[in-house]
Amino acid sequence: MDPLPSFLQSLFLVPLTLLPIINPVGVAPIVIGAAGGDDKVLKRLSRQVAINGWVVIMVSLLVGTYVLDLFGISLPVVRVGGGLLVAYSAWVMLTRNETDDVQTAVVHSSPGDISEAEIVRRSFFPITFPLTTGPGSIAAAIALGAQIPRSPIPYVMQAGIAAIGAAITAAVVYLVYRNGGRLLMRMGEVGTLVMMRLMAFVLLCIGIQILWSGWADLNHIPT
């Protein structure tokens, strides 16, 4: 087999598998809502979510199977629990009327007042997990990681390729969140609110679908 096509296939396997599951276009309205409509905060938040997402993907790829084996947890159970978490987060976003902590902080302070540590804390839940790298993408990353050879040299090579693929995935997420957020800002407050409610409903449906897929796997029900 020609090494170049094989390398490219391995390189793009991670982004081509994970990006449809992550669906950054669908999560972008929630990111702009968390940024409170501030472009500088949006840039920092998008960057931190991309970094967080890369870390979650790599941990899932490299150690996910070992962690699940250690605690005796199966992938269908991960889907059930993660689906519940996604559905709950979407329901909260769909029904709340007040602004959240991030939006309140942005309204009452300038972008420079928000430290990097605060951005990291606010970016992880629920934007990084479960909305960006949720149970579906984690389960897919674990499945990809299970295919990495266990021999030392092939393992290092495949892990390096997977790391680059995860970096490509994170870069796409950053670009979509960053530029998609700018586009949504032009829609105004009402347009952004409507889009956020619509995407929250879609995320609710995604959470239920992930939950059902896990339940079907546990009970051997055709999906």
Topology:
Layout: H1 3-22, H2 24-34, H3 39-71, H4 75-95, H5 101-107, H6 116-132, H7 135-145, H8 152-185, H9 188-219
Question: Can you describe what's shown?
Answer:
There is one protein chain. With 223 residues, this protein is mostly helical. The chain has one domain (3-219). The protein has helices at residues 3-22, 24-34, 39-71, 75-95, 101-107, 116-132, 135-145, 152-185, 188-219. Helix 3 crosses helix 6 and helix 3 packs antiparallel against helix 8 (152-185). The radius of gyration is 18 Å and the shape is globular. The chain starts with a helix and ends with a helix. The model is unreliable at 98-112 (pLDDT under 50).
- Low-pLDDT stretches are 98-112
Q: How many DSSP E strands? A: 0
- Shape annotation: globular
**Residue fraction in strands:** under 5%
Query: Treating each run of at least 4 consecutive H or I residues as one helix, how many helices?
Result: 9
Q: How far apart are the first and last residues' alpha carbons, in Å?
A: 36 Å
Can you summarize this structure?
This protein has helices at residues 3-22, 24-34, 39-71, 75-95, 101-107, 116-132, 135-145, 152-185, 188-219.
